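User: quick one, sequence for these tokens?
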């Protein structure tokens, strides 16, 4: 692990012995790049994203906590992705390189601390080797009062062409779309053409994202749900931090805990996601 810079942001580079590499900005504890051992970039980051700490980064893996979207009274998608995290350890274990980052209540700016006055500590562990990436987000209640929270890893996976992508593993899984309408997915594979915004609940098995000849196997634990999202042409054109045609180059498949969990004083929760390139 060594210190580097991503745009104007201080960052940490993590490199495994086989050449797999990742970059995490301290702003947001944000994984902005993951290259497998073959040197191939696997995450999308918008060319128009402001990399100056003034707003959340568009792309990579934003950390969502303590609320998902607008499902609460706080910042959309919570404050974790716009706060400054601290490096908290690194090393190599069985050829896997890893780094850990932390954010605690004492690290919050005054206005955020006043809006969410609970004692907590977040830990984010990024580990990689070869063709695999392992992410672990832990939430610890360091106080006595219980608090509700949601969490997600808002992963933007880089693809060559959106309409060539297929996502398998969601057949017969219940989902809701942005209108709130609920249904069961009938198709064995989910295709992408334009805008898509769905929350899938209680995933029974790993997912497989096929993008042309490439594929990513996505496994999760602790996170019960998955969000599948792409803004499509019209919404992408309305986003100030995305080029109009960039929506064709990514699919978001987020490991998520959508319905708020109640974390008791002294308790800890961990959500895991493992991504394997095939």
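Assistant:
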């Amino acid at each position: 692990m060594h210190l580097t810079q991503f745009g104007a942001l201080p960052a940490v580079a993590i490199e495994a012995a086989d050449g797999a590499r990742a970059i995490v900005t301290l702003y947001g504890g944000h994984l902005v790049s993951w290259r497998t051992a073959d040197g191939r970039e696997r995450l999308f980051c918008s060319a128009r994203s402001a990399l100056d700490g003034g707003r959340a980064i568009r792309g990579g893996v934003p950390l969502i906590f303590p609320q998902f979207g607008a499902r609460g009274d706080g910042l959309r998608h919570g404050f974790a992705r716009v706060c400054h995290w601290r490096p908290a350890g690194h090393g190599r274990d069985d050829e896997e390189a890893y780094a850990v980052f932390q954010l605690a209540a004492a690290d919050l700016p005054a206005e955020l601390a006043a809006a969410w006055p609970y004692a907590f500590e977040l830990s984010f562990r990024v580990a990689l080797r070869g063709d695999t990436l392992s992410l672990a987000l832990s939430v610890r209640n360091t106080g006595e009062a219980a608090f509700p929270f949601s969490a997600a890893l808002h992963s933007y996976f880089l693809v060559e062409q959106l309409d060539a992508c297929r996502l398998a593993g969601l057949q017969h899984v219940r989902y809701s779309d942005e209108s709130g309408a609920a249904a069961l997915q009938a198709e064995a594979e989910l295709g992408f053409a334009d805008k898509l915004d769905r929350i899938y609940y209680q995933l029974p098995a790993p997912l497989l994202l096929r993008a042309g000849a490439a594929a990513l196997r996505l496994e999760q634990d602790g996170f019960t749900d998955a969000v599948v999202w792409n803004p499509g042409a019209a919404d992408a054109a309305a986003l100030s931090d995305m080029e109009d045609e960039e929506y064709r180059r990514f699919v978001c498949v987020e490991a998520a805990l959508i319905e708020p969990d109640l974390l008791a004083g002294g308790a800890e929760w961990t959500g895991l996601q493992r991504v394997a390139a095939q």
